[in-house]
Write a structure and sequence with these properties.
It contains nine helices and nine strands. By secondary structure, it is of the alpha/beta class.
């Protein structure tokens, strides 16, 4: 695909884009999904990366509303009780969750909101938002996955073994996703992911307002021509 074709593909199509869509990204640890999300956000201006709420304390350099929304445990429990979270989970004595209000506000602005979450949370999102798009990111081979984990230089062989064990469990549930993308080249995969997401806007069920306008115009013109 040449640069001109790529530009045409990434331009907004002529349909109404009054509301964005919800896109859930999951993948094995080491699949490169975090780097892929960064590339997507840098290349295109119609995405918004969801910001999670957490009960853990901010780390040096982290800012409220940028890395996370930092809340107390009491406030988090209140958010659960009031159904203010699309999904949540507990990790190492701290809670993490996706605030409903932030996601819906961004979608109302016409942004496609990206959630990078684990499989369990992804399935909860799909149950609440059937129109959401679930994408699973994987490296081309297990050997490549192991190589990427070792290349980090921050994890012991025991940790890598545990990550592979978790990956084996996750692999059993990939059929629940709508799409799978092989991340063998960052630039290419970022383009493919963008194409995949933007093409969702051309689904008939995503363009009901457009269809209603066309139907109304046809009725009006038909009535005028038969006067």
């Amino acid at each position: 695909m040449n640069d001109h074709e790529d530009m045409e593909r990434t331009e907004h199509h002529p349909f109404e884009r009054n509301k964005g869509m919800l896109v859930v990204i999951s993948g094995f640890s080491g699949s490169g999904k975090g780097t892929l999300m960064k590339q997507l956000m840098e290349n295109y201006d119609y995405y918004s990366l969801s910001i999670s709420a957490t009960t853990r304390a901010p780390r040096p350099g982290e800012q409220e509303g940028r890395e996370y929304f930092f809340v107390s445990r009491e406030r988090f429990m209140e958010m659960i009780q009031n159904d203010e979270l699309l999904e949540y989970a507990k990790y190492v004595d701290n809670y993490y969750g996706t605030p409903r209000s932030y996601v819906e506000q961004e979608m109302a602005r016409g942004k496609d909101v990206i959630l990078e979450i684990e499989m369990q949370g992804a399935l909860k999102i799909k149950a609440k938002y059937p129109e959401s798009v679930l994408v699973f990111i994987t490296p081309p081979t297990v050997e490549e996955l192991i190589a990427r984990l070792r290349k980090r230089g921050t994890e012991t062989e025991d940790v890598i073994r545990k990550r592979l064990e978790k990956a084996a469990m996750e692999a059993e549930g990939i059929e629940a996703y709508d799409y799978i993308l092989v991340n063998d080249n960052l630039d290419k995969t970022a383009k493919h992911l963008n194409y995949l997401i933007q093409d969702q806007h051309m689904r008939v069920r995503s363009q009901i307002a457009f269809l209603e306008r066309i139907r109304k115009e046809l009725r009006v013109n038909y009535a005028y021509m038969n006067q």
